[in-house]
Amino acid sequence: MTPVSRRHVLGGAAALAMAASSTVRTAVAQSPGASNTEAGAPGLHRIKIGDIEITSILDGVRRGKLVASPSRSASLEQYQEALAADNMPRDEIALVFHPLLIKTGDRLIMIDTGNGPRTLNAGTGLTAQRLAAAGVDPAKIDTVIISHFHGDHIGGLVTLEGAPAFPNAEIKVPLDEWNYWLDDANMNKAAEGSNLRNAHANVRRVFGAIPGKYVTKFGGGKEVAPGITAMATPGHTPGHTSFIISSGSHTLLVQADVTSGVAVVFVRHPDWFGGGDMDGPQAVATRRKLYDMLAAEKMPMAGYHLPFPALGRIEKSGGGYSFVPAA
Ligand SMILES: [Zn+2]
To answer: What is the rounded (10 degree) CA torsion for 177, 216, 10, 283?
Structure first.
């Protein structure tokens, strides 16, 4: 794929993409005290991309018994085989969530916010506590950038009492995402009581708590904060957006939910539709285009649902890909 066609396919942000294969590995090695284990870990892992400091935050782990395939295009047996191939139990599903805290110059930025404090009983929603542990006052966050409107990404925008969790931040959201979810006709097409209907209601709950003047909308290819450029990656949701963080010659691709659920399964099997992928064929096409680019460029990646600290890179493997965690 030529640089020109990549730009065309993935939007202007890809033009910023430059090979930076060693950036994450080097940065992680320079981050003493960070832990790659879930138990007893602070759930924070800091790296640098050029001059930009990035902290991966473990919002928590949601565990459940695996009773049905989470993929619409793989049987339960196929899915269990895929879990076993990555050394995970066949009968359990463990979902992880990783918002990012970004420090660039004197600005503090979040990308996504986790499940929110209403989910603490489920083992998630810990982002506010992690930020406190990192010494970050949520009132000092300047900008919160949202990849898409699923509850595990927007839930942390609101406190348990229903107030804005980042009271002084500008909340930047993808325009296509806003237009889809806030359209009552789309909500009314979803059956009462369905997950989709509940997701529409949750979007209204969350954004109903935030004064409109704090919310702005952006399109793909736009620089949404200094060094952070949006890249439209639709399919998972209509306005799903990834980001390229760039400083000097260093880049990091923030994929959000290009693979979701137990994301490594869908990295290996990119043609399977994830349970959360609203448009399966479009999600597959987006995944393959993006991962072909990441593999060719050896570009470091942050993946919201990849194993803590959710940093590494993509390699081609068989008919799919594999995720190589940062050392
Ligand atoms: Zn999602």
So the answer is: -20
